[in-house]
Amino acid sequence: MSSLFPALTGGPADRPALRFGDRALTYGQLGAAASAVAGRVRDARRVAVWATPELETAVAVTAGLLAGAAVVPLNPKSGEKELGHILSDSAPEAVLAAPGAALPGPVRDVPRIDTGIDVAGRGPLGERGGDEDPGLIVYTSGTTGPPKGAVIPRRAVAATLDALADAWQWTGEDVLVHGLPLFHVHGLVLGVLGPLRRGGSVRHLGRFTTEGVARELNSGATMLFGVPTMYHRIAEALPEQPELVTALSGARLLVSGSAALPVHDHERITAATGRRVIERYGMTETLMNTSVRADGEARPGTVGLPLPGVELRLVEEDGTPVTAYDGETVGEIQVRGPNLFTEYLNRPDATAAAFTADGWFRTGDMAVREPDGYVRIVGRKATDLIKSGGYKIGAGEIENALLEHPGVREAAVTGEPDSDLGERIVAWVVPADPQSPPGPEELAGHVARRLAPHKRPRVVHHLQALPRNDMGKIMKRALGHG
Ligand code: MCA
Ligand code: AMP
To answer: Which stretches make up the AMP-dependent synthetase/ligase domain (predicted)?
Structure first.
C-alpha cells in the first residue's frame, strides 16, 4: 500500500500546510491534529464530513483518509431531502464536524465526532487503506433522480494528483489559493489533497472574492484554481483593481476547470495581465482527464492533452472511434485509466451503463481533436444536465422538487446561457391554480431548502401547458421559443 500523504510523515514538520483565514497548520500540526481524529474513526468503514469551508474540514478529510475510511463530503448548504438521500445511501458510521457546527435533522441521526484541532499529540499513527480501497464517495447529479455516489479509490486520487504534478510542474514549493467548496472534487481533491500530496500549502479564502485572490497572490501564493464563474468575475474586476492585475501577472499558474472557460473572459484576462489561463478537463467519476501543460500552449477554448496514464478516445454514436485529428469531427469522449472511479454506490445498473464492454467510461461530453491532439469540448450529450457556476445539476431532480410544491401542477427545467454562471436554471411551471401562481422567490426557496441553494431556479416562467409531443414527452427545445 502506498501513502497518499508522504509529506505528513516524511517532510519537515515546520512547513506550512493549510491556512484558512487567520488559522493555519504546519505539516507537524496537521499530522498531530488529523491523527487525533483518525484514532477516533479507526474502525469506521465510512465517515461523512460536514464540509464547511474551514480548517476543520481539511483536518477531518485527512483524518478519514489516514484511518483508511471512505470519506463522504456533505454540502453544508444541502437541504434535508438531499442530505437524507446521501446519508441513507452511504450509511456512514459517523459524521465529522467542526465543534459548534449546527447540524440539520437527517445529519443529527448519525453519531457525531467533533473535529477539534488538537496539535499536542504525537503525529501520524500510520496510514491505513489499500490502493483499491475507496477513499472518497462524492455525490454527483445525473439527468434524473437523486445524486449518485461516485466511489473514488485511493489510487485514483494519487494517480490524478501525480499526473497533474507532471503537467503543471506542481511541487512542494507551490502555494495554492482558492475559494472553492470542499464537497466536490475540484476544491477538495485538487484544492486540498493536491497541495498536501506535494508537500506544499493551500490558503483557502473561505469564500471566493477577487480581493482575496489579489491579497494572497500578492503575498506569496503561486497558483490559483477556480471555476469559470470565478474567472469571469476576475475579468470583470481587473479594470478597477490594479492590485488584481499585479497578482495575476505574477502568479506561476492560473488554472480553470469544472466548466468551459468562455473565450471572451480568457482573452480579457490575457489582455489585462499578459497571462493565459490553463484549462483542465475532469469529472467527479474520472478525476482529471486532460490539461494544457504548464509549458504548453494555452489556446482559449481547448482543454489540452490527455494526462499521463489517461487513455482518451472520441467515439461516434454507433461506437466507432473517431480517428481524425481535424478539429471538426465530433465524438463522445471516453476515457480509461487509473484516475477512474470504481462504481456508483448501490447502483450496479448505473455503473454498468456508464462503461463500455471493454472498460471505457462514457463521459457524455462531446469534443473534437485538433491536429496537435488538443481536445476541444463542444457540448454535452444530455440536455438535461446543467452546469451552473461549475456545479452539475440534473434537470430531473429540480423538476421532482418543484412538483412537490402544492402550487405546481407541471414543471420542466432547462439551462439558459448566462455570462456569469455559464448556464442559469430556468423553471417552466404550470401552476395548480392559475389565479395565484407560486412566485419565483417562493419556488427558489422551496428548491433551495429541499436540495441546495445552487440548484434553485433563477428564472421562473408560468405557462398554461407544457409543450408535449404525440407521446406526451415534454419538448424542452420548444420552451423559450414562443
Ligand atoms: C441565495 N442563497 C440562498 C437562496 N438564494 N439560500 C437559500 N435559499 C435561497 N433562495 C444564498 C446562497 O446559499 C449563498 O449563500 C448566497 O446566497 C449566494 O448564492 P449564489 O448566488 O448561488 O452564489 P454565487 O456567489 O453566485 O456563487 C458563485 C460561485 C459558486 C462562488 C462561483 O457557484 C461556486 O462556488 N461554484 C463552484 C462549484 C464547484 O466547485 N464545482 C466543482 C464540481 P452564502 O452567501 O452563504 O454563500 S465539478 C468537479 O469537481 C469536476 C471534477 C471538475 O472538473 O472540477
Ligand atoms: P461534475 O460531474 O460536477 O464532476 O462535472 C463534470 C463535467 O464538467 C464534465 O463532464 C464536463 O461536462 C464539465 N467540465 C469539467 N471541466 C471542464 C472544462 N475545462 N471545459 C468544459 N467542461 C468541463
So the answer is: 12-345
200, 386, 396, 402, 461 from 413: Cα distances, Å:
42, 9, 8, 9, 10
**C-alpha cell, 427:** 423553471
For 373-400, the DSSP string reads S-EEEEEES-TTEEEETTEEEEHHHHHH
Helix (H) or strand (E) holding 334: strand 331-336
3-state secondary structure of 211: helix
Q: From ligand 1's centre to the CA of 478, what distance in Å?
A: 29
pLDDT digits (tens, 9 = 90+) for 67-104: 999 999 999 999 999 999 999 999 999 999 999 999 99
Asked if pLDDT for residue 463 goes beyond 90, the answer is yes
Supply the DSSP string of 41-53, one letter for each residue.
Answer: STT-SEEEEE--S
Angle, helices 55-67/27-40, rounded to nearest 10 degrees: 60
pLDDT digits 0-9 by tens, 255-272: 999 999 999 999 999 999
- Residue 374 is placed in which grid cell? 488538443
Residue in the block written with cell 472511434: 321
CATH architecture of 6-192: 3-Layer(aba) Sandwich (3.40)
Rounded to whole angstroms, how far apart are CA atoms 351 and 143?
A: 15
Domain 386-478 fold is: GMP Synthetase; Chain A, domain 3 (3.30.300)
Distance 258 CA to ligand 2 centre (A): 4
Q: Which residues line ligand 1 (CB under 6 A)?
A: 77, 180-181, 184-187, 207-208, 227, 229-230, 257-258, 282-284, 389-391, 444-445, 448, 453-454, 456
Of 267, 269, 276, 270, residue with least CA distance to 298:
276
Domain spans, the chain? 6-192, 386-478
The whole-number pLDDT of residue 1 equals 67
Strands (E) located in 231-330: 253-256, 278-283, 287-291, 305-306, 311-315
Query: Rounded to the nearest whole angstrom, what is the distance from the C-alpha of residue 293 to the centroid of ligand 2?
Result: 18
Instruction: Report how far residue 196's alpha carbon sits from residue 194's, in angstroms, rounded to the nearest whole number.
Output: 5
Determine the pLDDT at residue 155: 98
